[in-house]
Amino acid sequence: MKSLYSDHPTWLHAVPAGTKLVFLAVLSTGVFFVNEWLSLGLCALICVGIFASLGRTTATVKPLLVGLMVACVLLSAFHLLMQQPALAAVTVLRLVCTTLMGIALTLTTRYSDLLHVLEWVLSPLKRLGISSERLALQLALMLRFTEHFFILWRRLDDAHRLRTGQVGGFKILAPLTIQMLMSTRHVADTLHVRLRR
Amino acid sequence: MNTSSLSIALVSLFAALVAVFGLIPKIDLPLGVPITLQTLGVMLAGCILGPKRALQALLLFLAAVALGLPLLSGGRGGLGVFFSPASGYLLGWPAGAFVTGWIMTLLPKHSPRSSAISAFIASALGGLVVVHVAGVVGLVNIANLSWQQAITGTLVFVPGDLIKCTLCATVVHTVARGLPDWRLGG
User: Fold this and answer.
1) ipTM of the modeled complex
2) Does B123 have pLDDT greater than 90?
């Protein structure tokens, strides 16, 4: 499973993951306290500028940008239809600020760096029995099995198509779930032997 | 079987199943909110894993999305998706899975048929009502819709989600028959 992170280096890659996350948290909270479209417009302009400065790197997230544009068009059309142009501007500008910066952070921060920050954030929870190492193990298992289950889904679909001449669709959901639960037991046994718990 | 290892495996593998459901193409509806099969994963997690593990599975899935993995339908991922108009629905998934699992623990499961009926009720209340309430709160706060507009908007999804509840009940029925020793609802 490939992350949305881009290897093409930009100036934002050099900024530490923690700093970028704090900036995003402050920005996303801040824009919800501002109701004036002029200030939000200025903020959106800066965010678009930051995003545009990433250059070629942004090419990989075109589908996400198209999704953002569609949401902006639909939201503004809806509010304009309700004769609330100021509200349309405020809503769309907030969405542009937060979403663009969220995408920029994802594009320029390695999965492992974000995981380190997450582990650091969760470290106080160790006292409550929540282990950050366990989280890393679960994420790794999840990624490994996403691919595995997708291949399994396609195999079941192919088998169903050969038997009936029709696409499996929802009919293969139950066998997929049962096979997944059986795999879980095998994985649990392996983990038990490996982790001794 | 050791419960700690089983918990780790169940939580991870169910989060993977929710991700696989995202690989099936999404259908976009007005207001930028997509209809996806991933909510079926939320319902199934609650019915099959029980409240605590279902909550953990969905939190793990959302953590992976936040870390930038394109696991949501249509290959979406990253922190940006948590600011979209649909983010209320996303954040409602762990709560929905927990409530589904909790209701499942309260309802009878002595036969495959009763398990399926319980799964339908639990997924309708948890996977449908709770997720939609969270979605409406998201639409009101992020898309700046009025409560009435947001509720009207979310009603578009209800027929599709009722179909997912039926599918969830069917899967639970098959699991109850195929794996009779599995403790549904955790």
Assistant:
1) 0.84
2) yes
